[in-house]
Amino acid sequence: MAKEQSQLRERQRTDLREPRRYKVIIYNDDFTTMEFVVMILVQVFLKSQEEAETLMLQVHHSDKAVVGIYSYDIAVSKTRKATLMAREKGYPLRLAVEPAEE
């Protein structure tokens, strides 16, 4: 007995969505220098000098600021890199990754 092959294909519905976005927040502390924060914002988060200085002042006056919104992997990678750089210099700089509102 030969098997019958069906020419019917099932269609799978794929519901593709944009990946969730995450914000990186930098917090103020009394030990990390303003110059170091600006350097982190320029080197790690690729901000212009002017934008980095504005963000640094926002952190200084408001205790925290969102420095960028990224995919999860990039947000975590940038946060780890900035934290590692801060620890190497002996600064307690704190950054966090949180889901961005959609």
Overview features:
102 residues; alpha+beta; 3 helices; 21% strand
Could you characterize what this model shows?
- The protein is α+β, with helices and mostly antiparallel strands and 102 residues long.
- It is 41% helix and 21% strand.
- The protein has helices at residues 34-43, 49-62, 72-89, and strands spanning 21-27, 64-71, 94-99.
- The chain has a 3-stranded antiparallel sheet.
- Helix 1 (34-43) crosses helix 2.
- The longest helix is centred in the C-terminal third of the chain and has 18 residues, at 72-89.
- The radius of gyration is 22 Å and the shape is elongated.
- The mean pLDDT is 91.
Q: Brief overview, please?
A:
By secondary structure, the chain is an alpha+beta fold.
Percent of residues in helical segments? 40-55%
Largest sheet at a glance? Answer: 3 strands, antiparallel
Low-confidence stretches: none
Mean pLDDT rating: 91
The rough form would be described as: elongated
- Which sequence of SSEs, written as H and E, runs from N to C? EHHEHE
Which strand order do you get reading across the main beta sheet?
2-1-3
Q: How far apart are the first and last residues' alpha carbons, in Å?
A: 58 Å
Strand content: 15-25%
What is the number of E strands? 3
Helix and strand composition category: alpha+beta
